Amino acid sequence: MTDQIRVRFAPSPTGMLHIGNVRTALITWLFAKANQGYFLLRIDDTDLERSKPEYEAAIYESLTWLGITWDELAHQSKRLDRYAEVIKKLKEDGRLYACYETSEELSLKRKSQLTQGLPPIYDRGALNITEEQKAKYESQGRKPHWRFLMKDEPIVWQDQIRGEVRFEGKDISDPVLIREDGSPLYHLCSVIDDADFGMTHIVRGEDHVSNTAAHIQMFEAIGFKTPQFAHLPLISDAEGGKLSKRLGALSIIQLRDEIGLEPLSISSLLARLGTSDPIEVYNDYAPLIENFEFSKFGRGTPKFDPDELLRLNSKIIHGLDFDHAKIRLAQIGLEEITEEFWNVVRANLEVITDIKEWWTVANGPVTPVVNDNDFAAKAIELMPPAPWTPDTWKEWTTAIKTETGRKGKELFMPLRQALTGMDHGPELGDLLPLIGPEKAKARLSKQAA
Fold first, then answer.
1. What pLDDT is recorded for position 429?
2. Is residue 227 part of a domain?
3. Residues 268, 323 share a domain
4. Which of 47, 243, 369, 385 is 20 to 30 A removed from 410 (C-alpha atoms)?
5. One domain, residues 144 and 196
6. Which stretches of the chain drop beneath a pLDDT of 50?
7. Is 113 helix (H, G, I), strand (E, B) or coil?
8. In the chain, how many H helices and how many E strands?
């Protein structure tokens, strides 16, 4: 194995990718790119009951849309023989031992320990049972689960984000690595894969810190060098609570299809969230890769603010030229939008799907708001002849002002409300030629058009 940095992102195809796990994927990928490293996409699909092909397809689609590429693809479901091989060795070495307690019996043990003020750590009672007791349990139909025997020694690592992390082996409950049905659990499969694929760094959420302590001893038990670790603080919502409100609860596919976000609005925010760098919009990954360092990440809980995401997205939209915009417009079924229309309305878009509203304003039907029939009639009377140009609005409003004496908001707002049915939007000097005299006249006459 070379000195090349090797990392992985390992989603389970049991659900859609959301902001939280995509942040881990992005940061891992940026780290690899910044160091000319290798990025493995590993599908953790050993849970056959919950793993679905549609979720796996969505993982590929989400990452590809975001621009996150991988050097190799692996599936845990294709590596079961390798897991069995390692499991056999760990049993022979005495690091995996059979346990016959039921979940109810284990629950009672934990309650008893807590009542006595003791930590709820497995008491290793299974190490003391006799062959006769094992035979009795098996005659009752019990099948063993298997635990990993932790060594009573310090476990210390230098985390890329948290600094020195220290555990004592005696304080960690021996983790269950094999279920009663003989299938291996995530912890063992992940360690074997990380070892076999030569992972040099593991990037994941801080909720895995205690798992890492046990994983380090597992790496040693199977005879592989322990990788380095970077544990990212978990993000919260804008109020500091669990990430479950508004956009944070949506999958990446929904953020694309239902909200209409651009991929780099998501990446621009997630790459800098929780770092010392300012959050700003990026049009490509180059600066994010060039400036990536784990030392910039703090240990505090970063807050995900959907308004910040929408602000970044609007900046991308406002700077999007038509050649790029028409690709996105085609994806939302608006191939007929012209460059002229795009340039008029893009400054009023927060997400690209907002353009549908302005397309309706220009083409109808619109329910006009007319509160002064006499003023509307005068506006129709003074309407300039076709063809309309960007100068038509000034010509028209100047004539109305001279004739009625109205000016400012009293002049412009009634016209906007009648022509668009709204009290805000693009400059009417630009929008008016897109509406045209026929629809303008109909709307001033209170006819939806």
1. 93
2. yes
3. yes
4. 385
5. no
6. 1
7. helix
8. 18, 12
